[in-house]
Amino acid sequence: MVPTVYFIENFNPISWAFSIWPRLFWQRFNKHQTVTACFIFDGLPLAVVLAKLSALITGVPVSKLEFRLANMKNQARESVRWRIVYGDLLRVQKSATATFAFRELTRNEGGLGRITDYLKKRLIDSSYWSRGNLWRSVHLIRVCQWYTEHQDRHVLRSEKGKDAVPQKKHRAKLFLEQIPWMGALDELAQECGVSIVPVRRSMNLRSRWRGIMPRWALDLARKFRYFQFGAPTRPTSPQFGATDEGRRARVAFEYYGQGNLDNPERHSDLFFWQQSTLDGADLLALLQFPQFPMNEQNWKEFATHGIGAIKLHPAASAVPGIPAYISTSSGRITSMISVPLHGPEGQWVRREEAQFQLLKERWRELFKQERLKVSLNWYKYTADHFAISDAMEDAGGISCIYQRAYEADPSAQNTISADIVFGFSQGVAGLERISGSQIKYHVTTGYLGDHRFELVRGNSQRIRKNLRDHGAKKILAFLDENSSDDPRWAPGHQFMQADYEFLLNKLLEEDWLGLVLKPKVPRTLRRRLGPVSKLLQQAEATGRCFIFEAHENAPPHGWHPPAEAGLASDLAVHGDLTAGTAGVECALAGVPTLLYDPMGWPSSPLYNLGLGETVFTDWETLWSACQRRLSDADGTSTIGDWTPLLDDIDPFRDGRASERIGTYVSWLLEGFRSGFDRERVMANAAERYCAAWGDDKITQVNWKQDPQIHQRGSSG
């Protein structure tokens, strides 16, 4: 008999009673197959109890599946999470877009703008935290595969010893709630040894009501929720009047709680302005994130520099005087798609097309009313920016996206479609090409935070001196990558607690060691450390441990850049190779830096720095390397040496990346104020940049028409 394991995405009483339970019952009489266990991914505790009781008669144990993403690796010792992000999502996306509907859209895309690319990204940009999307479904398939392979290894080793080569014995059957494009999962599921059984979706009353309520009713409900009836609603900044000068072309940027206008050594959403000749009156902050609200202090700082702001979400600020943008769009959508679309996929396409048009119309309205000719943003991980780029183009302006995080692998998540992208290096353009991005001008600027290196050096030296005054002879910096409350879908707190516990114990054991801790989310660190927080208190009591705490008005990620911690140390350790920006920054600042890869992604180009030299997969080996590097008296050690990769990461390394971006943006505004159209403005700015920094610093990526400049490089 073939042992089979059942997996249920979400416990639904109807699906359980009419689809799953009968299968469990009748399998008792099947001589060729036996169900050894039934696991539930999600479900209310009471529902899980009822499932267990009702399954007693079937003889199959039912329980909620407990697993940790951080422990999940395939037979090649690769992290399942990164295999999904850097492989599976692109594969499933290609499978879905090969269907009739997408082929027709592609064949008739003339005049449709970026709608096709928007739909492609919408297939995979939803979060695995929520149900009903392909990303989560791929995740569940990989979990089923991992569990059954783990069971196979366990059985085989008990029979033939630990060196036995496992063979597929267990089968997995996944009861997955029906979603559009479900057929795109078939090939991957078959390869993983998982059989998918579609079941009826649970009813989500909130989503159902939102789907049938008219737009005006949703807007009214939001105003009730946030008590915003008294807020000004003129979509103009209070600093500007009705004169031509007051309505001059401006730059829109999104506010993420990182102001620090007068503290350029800190993270800032206005880094480009701080390093440029742009006037404050040239800028408008778009407030659309309730989790990053603008408070009174931030607003006064903005007003002092003449920078305007406008609320796109009523809870993005409670400060009187900041106007709230209220769209006058009717919300009526005329479909641009003429091909017949039927079934769940057809409904999905029409729903997403309507959302695209609604987004596009509202952003176009905002851009025109506010005379916004340049939009500058970094968040490219959802499909929204496709609609925003289309809206800006319709408004006669230019969409710009800047790279904020280091990227080593192509990914469908990273797909961009914009007029201008500011990237760290020419190599980034190659990654964008493979990812499927479409970029008219990819501008190589260098690492955008490098201007802070010299600005933070003074504070770093003060931290270093204080640790040395308390007995530290050698100092290690540790930069973590946060942790999740739910370890099933992201690295959990226990995963991070083990990192801190190891380092804090070393500090308490070695009286020569100093420790600088730079958590990614300092505000919640002590809570997430749990029992390890006591060790942190003991370490702080020695005077040889410094932690970058959260400021009162700081956003969750804090204000201090990673280089500030690195420059206070003799050696830096970044706790997650696959999210390597903090480590990259320390290396660019000249700090010997080690990368810890506990989850496992040996395909990363960062492994070229050397496993056991700069990259490590366990703490004991990493600590041994730290000791060798810190005891290197003549400075000949290559441990933590990034020299082979630095040119590929940043070809400039001169502290002027933000200045280059700010200058480029100022050239765009100059062009508009000179009366040129957007194509001429972009071409002129590109010519000036090439003259200053070289023709190889601007290239195109998968663009249909060549930019109007001479190019030596091309990624298209």
Task: Identify the overall geometry.
Answer: globular
Total count of helical runs of at least 4 residues: 24
Instruction: Let me know the average pLDDT.
Output: 88
CATH homologous superfamily assignment of one domain: Glycogen Phosphorylase B
Give a count of the beta strands, DSSP E runs of length 2 or more. Answer: 19
Q: Would you tell me the structural class of the helices and strands?
A: alpha/beta
Question: What is the top-level CATH class of one domain?
Answer: Alpha Beta
Q: State the CATH topology of one domain.
A: Rossmann fold
**Residue share in β-strands:** 5-15%
Major sheet strand order: 8-7-6-9-10-11-12-19
Largest sheet: 8 strands, mixed
Q: Span between N and C termini?
A: 54 Å
In CATH, the architecture of one domain is 3-Layer(aba) Sandwich
Question: What is the C-alpha radius of gyration, as a whole number of Å?
Answer: 27 Å
Helix content: 40-55%
Flag low-confidence runs: 234-246, 706-715
Write the layout of secondary structure elements.
Layout: E1 2-10, H1 13-26, E2 33-42, H2 45-54, E3 62-64, H3 80-97, H4 100-107, H5 115-122, H6 134-160, E4 171-177, H7 186-191, E5 194-199, H8 205-212, H9 215-226, E6 250-254, H10 271-274, E7 283-287, H11 296-304, E8 308-311, H12 343-369, E9 372-377, H13 384-394, E10 398-402, E11 417-423, H14 426-435, E12 438-444, H15 452-469, E13 474-479, H16 493-509, E14 513-518, H17 525-529, H18 532-541, E15 545-547, H19 562-566, E16 571-574, H20 581-588, E17 593-596, E18 615-616, H21 619-630, H22 643-649, H23 657-673, H24 678-693, E19 698-701
Parallel strand pairs: 1-2, 1-4, 2-3, 4-5, 6-7, 6-9, 7-8, 9-10, 10-11, 11-12, 13-14, 13-16, 14-15, 16-17, 17-18
Antiparallel strand pairs: 12-19
